[in-house]
Specification:
- The chain is mainly α and about 200 residues long.
- It has nine helices and three strands; from the N terminus they run αααααααβααββ.
- α1 runs antiparallel to α2 and α3 packs antiparallel against α6.
- It is globular.
- The structure holds fe (ii) ion (FE2) (2 copies).
- One fe (ii) ion binds next to α6.
Length: about 200
């Protein structure tokens, strides 16, 4: 039996809520202290607190699940893991940009701190990827989600949603499945306008 959403039918719902807050806040405080201990070179203290912090975080997760956070089915669990993977995998780009802005604004120490997390963020993505591979879980975005994202980007910038194939931003799309390389689809003329050699994204 799953404990997911247990609090809904429990007389101890308030206690569960309090425990969840106490465990997560406690572990958050631990992590702050761990960072400060490391700055002071107190590595043994940091190590001891790290173990406590991880375990308290897990206790918080247990109570969080009882409160109905997250989804209970395996399919949903994989979906959320894939979502997290995408956040981790795309972190480097935004963190570098952030660090650049900070450096340009004359705050190089802050930029260094931000940049120091990049290697680990990439490792988070790699770690998840290895598990997805082992379980045969698809984690790359489909061509259609790239397209949707691209269209939304353009709409946000008040640009035309259609564009020439030659202008298609290769760096973001060259790994995606391209319907114009699929003969059958190309012949059907679904995505390819022969007359203007234009990819047209129908709204
Ligand atoms: Fe705890
Ligand atoms: Fe991360």
């Amino acid at each position: 039996m799953t404990m997911h959403n247990y609090a809904q039918h429990s007389k101890f719902a308030d206690t569960i809520r309090k425990m969840q807050a106490a465990e997560t806040n406690g572990s958050e405080l631990y992590f702050v202290l761990i960072y400060l201990a490391k700055e002071l070179g107190l590595h043994d203290l940091a190590d001891a607190m790290l173990k406590n912090a991880c375990e308290d975080s897990l206790h918080g997760g247990m109570y969080g699940a009882m409160l109905g956070k997250g989804k209970e089915s395996e399919e949903e669990l994989w979906k959320q893991a894939v979502k997290l993977y995408r956040v981790e995998a795309s972190a480097e780009e935004s963190l570098r940009k952030m660090a650049e802005e900070m450096r340009a604004a004359g705050e190089p120490q802050l930029a260094d701190c931000v940049e120091s997390t990049i290697a680990e963020e990439n490792e988070h993505a790699r770690r998840l990827k290895a598990v997805f591979d082992a379980h045969g879980i698809a984690y790359e975005k489909s061509w259609h989600s790239y397209k949707k994202e691209y269209e939304n980007d353009r709409r946000r910038n008040h640009q035309r949603v259609s564009c020439n194939v030659g202008q298609f931003p290769r760096t973001r799309y060259h790994n995606a499945e391209k319907p114009w390389n699929n003969r059958r689809e190309r012949r059907s003329g679904k995505t390819w306008s022969k007359a203007r050699h234009t990819m047209f994204f129908h709204r």
